């Protein structure tokens, strides 16, 4: 069995760099992506060329670890959080394939290491065994990147047990149900299977998700969110470097205001802390040090909340004009607000889990 986080080789933990050319493509197609509720084809092509879809699996990119994945997604999220989110979903789907299916099936499904995958861990389908395989029926909502992915890993119930199936997206219908204020361009629509026959070797029973897997998946959520917070901070720092002045004040520029400098310092500190917390959790996953899972899940939730708090500080600095639809700050704010509320970083459930660990009934 291939280790999804080790593979056959290895990448440096610093993550993949976003080349200036790729950053320009991402930045230049953000508005188009939001209008279409899916990543721009040009952005996906740039990430594919740079290896961002090959972070997990055999071939190029095998060996990427949780810290590498998190850093890579921060880099992309700084320019287009939604496209980074789709890359993170791809990493999760490939992890599910590599961790749960026989090596022969893995090598077949991931023959192209740069192929885009998607999926859902919600058992929203049911399977029935037939002589030639498993007949699959179901509806899986919120499948990020499904319109552009080649295949999907879908959770289902088979013989009363939680199972996973790998299905070509071409065998499924896509219902365009995604209509959200933030992470709009993730294309997280609904996949529908109506009497789809899946070969037996593409369906497998699976246990519950281990703590290490849950933490890895939290990194694929946090990476784009932290990246979005960094992108917002870039916009605020550019504002401070401009000739903009605090309205209704006697200051000649933003940096003259002690209060503005304090708010800037707090925002930058919160973003730094969010990223440091995320990378600390990722490093523990890479080291196999996940015995204290409840505390680590709590830290992941804290990272997400720090991103939200940081962007709120930045909007205070910018004022109401930061919410203009032409302002990049409001887009980062929406993406952070939605992405940081994903179930993988749910703060009250994380607190509930930690409380149960500290004081078991």
UniProtKB/TrEMBL annotation:
Residue intervals of the Acyl-CoA dehydrogenase C-terminal domain: 223-346
UniProt keyword list: Oxidoreductase
SUPFAM superfamilies noted in UniProt: Acyl-CoA dehydrogenase C-terminal domain-like, Acyl-CoA dehydrogenase NM domain-like
InterPro entries named among the record's database cross-references: Acyl-CoA_dehydrogenase (IPR050741), Acyl-CoA_DH_C (IPR013107), Acyl-CoA_Oxase/DH_mid-dom_sf (IPR046373), AcylCo_DH-like_C (IPR036250), AcylCoA_DH/ox_N_sf (IPR037069), AcylCoA_DH/oxidase_NM_dom_sf (IPR009100)
Signal sequence coordinates: none
Protein known as: Acyl-CoA dehydrogenase
Source organism (scientific name): Pseudonocardia zijingensis
Organism placement in taxonomy: Bacteria, Bacillati, Actinomycetota, Actinomycetes, Pseudonocardiales
């Amino acid at each position: 069995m291939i280790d999804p986080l080790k593979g056959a080789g290895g990448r440096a933990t610093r993550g993949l760099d976003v080349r200036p050319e790729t950053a320009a493509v991402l930045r230049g197609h953000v508005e188009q992506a939001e209008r279409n509720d899916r990543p721009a084809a040009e952005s996906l092509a740039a990430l594919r060329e740079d290896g961002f879809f090959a972070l997990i699996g055999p071939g190029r990119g095998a060996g990427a670890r949780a810290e590498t994945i998190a850093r890579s997604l921060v880099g992309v999220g700084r320019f287009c959080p939604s496209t980074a989110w789709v890359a993170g979903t791809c990493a999760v789907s490939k992890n599910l394939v590599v961790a749960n299916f026989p090596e022969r099936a893995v090598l077949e499904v991931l023959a192209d290491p740069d192929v885009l995958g998607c999926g859902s861990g919600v058992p929203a389908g049911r399977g029935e065994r037939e002589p030639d395989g498993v007949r699959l029926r179901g509806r899986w909502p919120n499948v990020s990147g499904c319109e552009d992915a080649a295949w999907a890993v879908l959770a289902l119930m088979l013989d009363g047990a939680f199972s996973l199936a790998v299905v070509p997206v071409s065998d499924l219908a896509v219902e365009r149900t995604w209509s959200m204020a933030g992470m709009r361009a993730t294309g997280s629509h609904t996949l529908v299977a109506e009497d789809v026959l899946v070969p037996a070797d593409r369906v497998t029973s699976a246990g519950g998700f281990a703590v290490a897997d849950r933490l890895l998946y939290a990194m694929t959520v946090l990476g784009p969110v932290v990246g979005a917070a960094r992108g917002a901070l870039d916009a605020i720092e550019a504002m401070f470097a401009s000739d903009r002045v605090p309205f209704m004040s006697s200051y000649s520029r933003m940096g003259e205001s002690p209060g503005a400098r304090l708010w800037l310092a707090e925002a930058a500190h919160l973003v730094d802390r969010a990223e440091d917390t995320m990378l600390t959790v990722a490093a523990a996953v890479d080291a196999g040090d996940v015995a204290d899972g409840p505390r680590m899940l709590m830290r992941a939730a804290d990272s997400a909340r720090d991103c939200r708090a940081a962007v709120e500080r930045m909007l205070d600095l910018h004022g109401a004009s930061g919410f203009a639809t032409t302002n990049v700050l409001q887009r980062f704010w929406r993406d952070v607000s939605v992405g940081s509320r994903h179930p993988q970083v749910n703060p009250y459930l994380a607190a509930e889990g930690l409380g149960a660990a500290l004081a078991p009934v």
